Amino acid sequence: MTTSTDSLSTASECTQQTEQTLRDPVADEKMVQSENEKLDPEELIDYPDGGLKAWSVVFGSWCAMLGCFGIWNSVGVFQAYLSENQLSHYTEGDISWIFSVFSFLFFFCGVQIGPIFDTYGLKPLVIPGSIGFSLSIMLFSLSNEYYQFFLSFSVLGGISCSLLFTPAIAAVNQWFNVRRGLATGIATTGGGFGGVIFPIVVRDLIPKVGFGWALRIVGFICLVTSTLAVLCLRTRFPSNKASSATIDLSSFKDRRFAATACATFMIEWALQIPQTYFTSFALYKNVDSTFAYQMIAILNGASVLGRWLPGYIADRFGRFNTMIATIFMCAVFSLSLWMASAAVDGTNTGLMIAYMVCFGFASGSGISLTPVCLAQISDMREYGKRYGTTFSFASLGTLTGVPIAGAILKAQNGRYEGLIGFCGACYMVCLMFLILARGFGGGWKLRTVY
């Protein structure tokens, strides 16, 4: 009797193996890929979406953003000051490379840092990142020569910011799903606050204590906020030892990811142009120097709301839908308000302020919603790798965007119309890629929430 049962079991196993052999593996792969594109990877994972631990992670991320993106959002003030003082014998294009390389390393290093985060967690990253970031600002304050500014700010500062920023934004995504847009938006408002505080601190303190001590005070602020980030940030998922520290080119086989990565590249190509050149533009239009330095603070103040509110809206009406709307506004505001203020003879502070407020609000989502959109189309266990892949690609935009704009400015003998047109065109191309990503992932119906 036992022999008969074993024979039937063996026959059944042979039949199953035969059926599996006869299956078309290509068809199976296409079917699995199709099903994966229809479902969000996090659907089967339970998220807290709130609670003391989750919101403390958001606070830690906010502290990290205040320092990293506060400095990143203030580079226009630094460039304008250096071009009139220590580096006055260099061209705007030459000086812009200091801040372009900083931005490039800020994002490019994510290709290594993202997978390390997946494998080992965040503490081995954020602790050296916090120390290096604060040290870079202190060394920046002591610099006088071009190479000193480059090594202290561009190299040390860029790498350290990436060590701190990448895990800080990735950690939030491990604690939130339904409210991910809101949580990430709140965290990234820290960069907006820093972008308001630091230009004002530098401007007010330079006449009193000099440029060096003004920067050192900023460095001490960053040291405090970075320490709070180290204490509050924590991960939730177990380490993924299989994650390798390489660019995951296979991710580009996913049409949604490929289109989103291209859109991110275009955002980074355009985003820093107003932040870097608007103070110089205001001085070119004969705006009072004190008020010209406040322009960036106005932009960053508006971006605080622009990072939080779109995140709140995105959780209800779709992350990609919200990004499409805000990027469209960035293009329209650049090609209308900024272009008009450049075309008008003489000083027109009304148009300038209007552009800073409107663009600051609209551009905020480029920081807060990009990680959320990536998380929506990614397996969270591989999020660090995909995030690193995206921003290593997008970092080429941060490296080249500002110098290209500077070259256009030089070719037009200091007139800004060509630079503004380049900025607006980048946002229009970005809009096209976002529409494609939304269509590939959620379909082409206008009412689809995606």
From TrEMBL:
Ranges annotated as biased composition (Polar residues): 1-20
Domain of life: Eukaryota
Any one GO molecular function term: transmembrane transporter activity
CDD domains: MFS_MCT_SLC16
Pfam families the UniProt entry points to: MFS_1
Membrane-topology annotation of the record: Multi-pass membrane protein
UniProt entry tagged with the keyword Flavoprotein: no
Stretch list, region Disordered: 1-37
Family designation: Belongs to the major facilitator superfamily. Monocarboxylate porter (TC 2.A.1.13) family.
Protein name, as recorded: Major facilitator superfamily domain-containing protein
Residue ranges annotated for the Major facilitator superfamily (MFS) profile domain, each copy included: 53-450
PANTHER family: MONOCARBOXYLATE TRANSPORTER, MONOCARBOXYLATE TRANSPORTER (EUROFUNG)-RELATED
Localization (cell): Membrane
Biased composition (Basic and acidic residues): 21-37
Cellular component annotations (GO), alphabetically ordered: membrane
Keywords from the UniProt entry: Membrane, Transmembrane, Transmembrane helix
SUPFAM superfamilies the UniProt entry points to: MFS general substrate transporter
Regions that span the bilayer: 54-75, 95-113, 125-143, 149-170, 182-201, 213-233, 291-310, 322-340, 352-375, 387-406, 418-437
